[in-house]
Write a structure and sequence with these properties.
Layout (H helix, E strand, L loop, with lengths): L5 E6 L8 H9 L10 E5 L8 E3 L2 E3 L1 E5 L8 H5 L5 E3 L6 E3 L9 H5 L6 E3 L25 E3 L4 H4 L6 H4 L6 E5 L6 H8 L2 E2 L11 E4 L1
Parallel strand pairs: 1-12
Antiparallel strand pairs: 1-10, 2-5, 3-4, 6-7, 8-9, 11-12
């Protein structure tokens, strides 16, 4: 068991669907064109801002979906070379780009659709210079990528970029093993759900309901 278990508590009630966390993640991590590690899905339809129900009884809510940083990650078990691994100190599921074979076994094993991406070609960018944090590793061809929980920021004692800059304060991050942390207290005092708990992966992402 990791000394810490970093995780997210996300509030669908407070999320306004602005997509800023997704954009902030993309810039912070210098993600290539077409790659998004964080997606904001609308409960109601496949397209952005599609309400559920029938007029005039419509409602709209959002789910922020990215890597679930599972405590029992199926992707780690599936990776044949240890390129996908669980950090011993933080519990964060990470990727070692230099060890990745591009076999995509982690993609096949993960029950959460769309939280990983694969660079089929050399990464391309809309601008001719790198953006984001200087400590973000270079993206490579034939490598699987996903949310890193901004390990480069958390190692410096900072919050992940998506949490630090959420305008609606819908995202919370911290140590789930610490009963006094904000995330632990939110879970104690609110109803919550997880995505596909029946898969047994024990995700470290919780959604307040």
């Amino acid at each position: 068991m990791a000394e810490k278990r970093y995780g997210f508590v996300l509030s669908s009630k407070d999320c306004i669907g602005c997509q800023f966390c997704a954009t902030r993640c993309k810039v912070e991590n210098n993600l290539p064109n077409g790659i998004w590690w964080n997606r904001i899905l609308t409960e109601g339809g496949l397209h952005m801002d599609t309400p559920s129900g029938e007029y005039p009884r419509l409602k709209m809510s959002y789910f922020q979906v990215a890597c679930q940083h599972c405590d029992n990650p199926a992707c780690v078990k599936a990776c044949p070379v240890g390129a996908t691994y669980k950090d011993a100190e933080t519990g964060v599921v990470r990727q070692d780009y230099d060890r990745c074979l591009g076999c995509r076994m982690c993609l096949a094993a993960c029950p959460y659709t769309g939280v990983r991406s694969f660079n089929w070609e050399e990464p391309k960018y809309s601008v001719d210079f790198a953006v984001g944090d200087k400590d973000v590793p270079a993206h490579q061809k034939h490598v699987v990528e996903k949310c890193t929980m901004c390990w480069h920021r958390t190692a410096r004692g900072e919050q992940p970029a998506c949490v630090a800059d959420c305008p609606g304060r819908a995202r919370h991050w911290g140590d789930l093993n610490d009963p006094d942390s904000e995330v632990s207290q939110l879970l104690v005092n609110n109803a919550w759900i997880q995505l596909q708990p029946e898969k047994g992966t024990e995700p470290s992402v919780y959604y307040l309901v």
